[in-house]
Amino acid sequence: MRAVLLFFPHGVGHLLGIDVHDMEDLGDRAGYAPGRTRATAAGDRYLRLDRDLAPGMCVTIEPGFYQIPRILARPSEVGELEGALNRSELGRFADVRGIRIEDDVLVTDNGAEVLSAAVPKTVADVQDAMLA
Q: Distance (Å, rounded) from C-alpha 31 to C-alpha 52?
């Protein structure tokens, strides 16, 4: 589980909309519900969203793999995983900071609607779209 937090530190997604995206300069006002505070433990401190979702909200769902140099350089973040990391192999892909598949999802009264469902996600589908 700790390795997941090392390479996927920010959580599954964030709120989406004109007044909530890219508001890091304003602290946690957009992503955290009133009374909730950011964790300080490695692995939880970078979560971008801690709110109960309600109908009408839009969120991103973006699982992926991220190499964040600042995190990988800190012994306090890497901890006991250092011996398991293949730094040479990670170095081969140092110019690739992240790989993800992202969907934008509208929370509805009965569940959710994936607004980006038609966006190609498989290699073959992306290649086909590029040739079209």
A: 10
CATH number at residue 107: 3.90.230.10
Distance CA 88, CA 82 (A): 12
Nearest to 60 by CA among 100, 12, 111: 12
* Exposure of 44 in the CB half-sphere (CA atoms within 13 A): 6
Query: What span, in angstroms and rounded, lies between the C-alpha atoms of 4 and 16?
Result: 24
pTM of this structure: 0.74
pLDDT, tens digit, 9 for 90 and up, residues 5-49: 888 888 888 888 766 555 666 777 778 888 988 888 766 777 888
State the total domains in the chain: 1
Q: Which domain holds residue 18?
A: 2-131
Helix (H, G, I), strand (E, B) or coil at 80: helix
Q: Count of CB atoms within 10 A of residue 57's CB?
A: 17
Q: What pLDDT, on a 0 to 100 scale, did the predictor assign at position 112?
A: 96
